[in-house]
Amino acid sequence: MAYTIPETMLAVVLAEDGATPEVKRIPTPQPGVGEVLIKMYSTPINPSDLAFLKGGYGIQKEYPAVPGFEGSGTVVDAGKGILPKLWMGKKVACAASPIYDGCWAEYMKTKAGMCVPISKNISLDQAAMMFVNPMTALAFFDVYKKLPNTTKKPRGIINTAAASALGRMVIKMGQKQEIPVVSVVRRQEQVDVLKAEGAEYIINSSEPDFEINLKELAHKLNATVIFDAVGGSMVQQLLNAAPKESNLYIYGRLSEDTCEINPGNLIFTGNNIQGFWLTGWLHSKSFLQSVLNTRKIQSLLGKELGTTIHKHFPIEQINEAIETYKNNMSKGKVLIRLGE
Ligand SMILES: NC(=O)c1ccc[n+]([C@@H]2O[C@H](COP(=O)([O-])OP(=O)(O)OC[C@H]3O[C@@H](n4cnc5c(N)ncnc54)[C@H](OP(=O)(O)O)[C@@H]3O)[C@@H](O)[C@H]2O)c1
What we know:
With 340 residues, the protein is an alpha/beta fold. The chain has 2 domains: 8-129 and 307-337, Medium-chain alcohol dehydrogenases, catalytic domain (Quinone Oxidoreductase, Chain A, domain 1), CATH 3.90.180; 133-279, NAD(P)-binding Rossmann-like Domain (Rossmann fold), CATH 3.40.50.720. Helices cover 32% and strands 24% of the residues. Strands 3, 4, 5, 6, 7, 14 and 15 form a 7-stranded mixed sheet that branches. A 6-stranded parallel sheet has the order 10-9-8-11-12-13, sandwiched between helices. A two-stranded antiparallel ribbon has the order 1-2. α6 (188-196) links the parallel β9 and β10. The longest helix has 15 residues, at 132-146. The model has no long low-confidence stretch (mean pLDDT 96). NADP nicotinamide-adenine-dinucleotide phosphate binds next to α1, α4 and α5.
């Protein structure tokens, strides 16, 4: 089937770091060798997008740039190569290429290898959120399983900012695998929501006894594998609570504050602290493992790895969409609807 592709398209354009995103009409890109053009359907706003808008994210692009790291749509044009031709006409989940404009546009050009055709039972909205958080949830359990267990006792996980889309996936995956997950949130409303969803161990960091409660539970559950998305003072609080020989992975910086830690918490405890970035983890996987992971995610999208959607906005209301997301992160994802 031949598609009519307009010469220009609407896109969210960022003029420079920290600029207010603007909706502009720009030329529709053309796919080259090994690439496809996707008529975009939907794309979420994630914390990584907010970091990209500000500048200082792990992926930087030449300005002016179109933001957006993941989305979904239909492949409407294919460059040379077997994979692009195979994907032609297919509905896909897609990730933006680090060197091209991103998903917040009516059309996006990307590598065919960064698209996955989706099964019929998956909605294009869920497909739009298939890479960043579901893949990270799989990665966390992969990291957990590969860490040598020097304690020889069953281990638990601690995760912070746990009312997030990712936090809820980690809770459900932990339940399925019978791995206890301690979810740290910052508001009572989040405790109530997670409890209603079946989470067993929830701790509110705003409570006066937060550190005492966390330490007690961390030791009871031998929760030595810790994932932190908050940064700032949370890192020292986690180290204070951690059993000896814990591994702390910092994967987010939601508080935006610098972390100051007591060196004794590393020197005398056998604790380790390091960063986690999905991009690095993906690079450590073979092509086959990545294909198997995307299949696994598709099979779990309606279950453990599904994402709650709060609201949809048209592209013209991008700044309202961003504000709505920033002020209601725990209510679910805000999606930009780009097409039919
Ligand atoms: N390193 C990686 O490769 C990687 C991959 C995927 C995700 N991530 C990170 O994972 C985290 C969750 O992502 P997501 O898309 O699942 O998020 P999300 O669904 O948009 O939710 C964000 C959550 O963070 C909470 N939050 C915001 N600011 C906070 C702060 N200063 N202190 C404590 N909690 C705060 C929000 O609570 P309120 O409602 O109270 O604001 C909300 O529950 C983000 O930090 C993201 O960058 C990292």
